[in-house]
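To: structure desk
From: M.T.
Subject: fold request, one chain
Message: Could you run this one when you get a chance? Sequence is below, nothing fancy, just the single chain.
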Amino acid sequence: MSEDQAVTARQGTPNDAARIDLGAAAEVRYWTRELGVSEDILREAVDHAGPEVEAVRHYLGSGS
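Reply: Done. Structure tokens follow.
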């Protein structure tokens, strides 16, 4: 099963809802939509905060 199929098979959610996998294109698309940010901003947030979704949300919310 491709990464796109894996995300689709779970009703549009990532394989691990607590972590952002920047290596999976389907998950990058999912998280950019979910968080309302561009791919560049998502990658920056993960670089600074790590792959945990709550840490990324906090980073994005802090305006950093």
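Reply (cont.): The chain has a mean pLDDT of 86. Let me know if you need anything else for the meeting.
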